[in-house]
Amino acid sequence: MTIQGLHLSIIDQTIIRSYIKVLLIYPFPDPYKFGDASTALGSGLRSTLQQYPYLAGSVGPADPVTGKVTAQYPDRIPNVLDSGVFQTVCEPASYSDFDYANLKEQGMPPEVLTSDRFCPISLKDHPGTGCSAADSVQELRNGPVPALAVQVTLISGGLVLSVYAHHCLMDGAGLGVFLERYATNVQTCRPDFQDKSSTPHDHSARRRDIDALVSASKRSLSSSHCPEFQLSPISSKEAIPPAANLRAHPHVMTSRILTFSHGRLSNLRDAMVNALNKRVSVFTVLTALLWVNVARSREPALIEAGVQDQETALGIAVNLKRALGEGFEDYVGNVSFAAWTSIPISKLTAMKSQLKMSPDSSTAKQTDCSMLEAVRTISATLSELDRDWMLKRISYLSAVPDPRRLGYAFSTVNSPHFFVNDWQALGADTHWDIPGTTSSQPEFIRRPYSEGEGGAFGIILPRRRSNGAQSNYEVLVRLAEEDMARFENEMERWVERVLA
Hints:
This protein is of the alpha+beta class. The protein has 2 domains: 3-194, Chloramphenicol Acetyltransferase, CATH 3.30.559.10; 229-424 and 463-499, Chloramphenicol acetyltransferase-like domain (Chloramphenicol Acetyltransferase, 2-Layer Sandwich). It contains 14 helices and 18 strands. A hairpin with a 6-residue loop joins β3 and β4. The protein is globular and about 60 Å long. GO terms for molecular function: acyltransferase activity, transferring groups other than amino-acyl groups.
């Protein structure tokens, strides 16, 4: 067995160094079928790794001088159990506090499925991650870390499939492609299955193609082109000046999942279209609704900190794979960026409503001015996201001398800012047909909860769109505990349900 290297693109090298984590949760009434489920998932994973062999390898360590990381993998796919990339946990006594029927009745609340309980064993207390449950940003100074870790855990009446993929190798859209392939292979694989049709493939080719988009002569650190980035003077993210603290005292972050009906959001979208006389997406309206009400929920803290006259920034995770053209449809590497925009806080908190629109009415001619302002701002930002916008970012990132010096000008940690990610397409309609499950598709898809992870954010969770029916929207929101009660109150007339 020989070791091969995977070229990491400019975007791969400069993306946040952490794991993308997702839990797929199924009803599983008969624990005696756990062996069949594990066999199918293990065999399906092995077949998938034959298509993406670098996921059986490792990432890191970071070069102490340049800060760049390497990715290596074996030329033959090892046994997934022996290598640690796939693990099974069947310990009913250890998970007696997880009952699928009860959790389903509660809506699978966000703070129950914790990373310390569902992080794959191979990543727990791994020296390379620098944390106990692979739930923080990594410096990758203490050796390599696994590229991928998958674990299936039996709980009472249910099955939890944990998938942790390193962000240096794929983004959220790439994870969606991987999960689709994995599910297909689970359906078709036998324990003795081998992909005899596989041929040698240059897995670095597409990543090099991305680098080739920017010639050396066009590489530039011009901040006028990319104002969202900033560089620290030394090779440490700790050296990036933090944003002005919103709170001087320690505070606890907490999470909720809010359920919005498709009908109500469509009505609000129609009202925005009528008021602005332009096309507006449900995503834009939902993002604006979050941004406005997060700002309003923070108003006491903003006033106490004396920043109520400053601006609040909104970051939106965007995937620009479409801008790369043909040949990248199934690309799993990073093409994700953060599009940032900002607005004076007063425009979101002033409550200058000419008419409080009913959530169930699409006929109102006047509505909340703050919502209109937020929708305008977000729409303008998203309209700029074309190939040229992407190439300017790649050009900037290609000129960064050390990825460890790179950071965003806006932080969502203890600040007036907020970040939104869209997971809607992440596999809710994917059929797995895992033996023993009574649902071909996962009934719930969740992000493992970690108490100390990240700042304030919203994630639009995966939703089903099968059979032409439009399902509700679920949004995971993380805020400071003292803001959350006000946020829930602000959102009360818009949501169907709040899960704590």
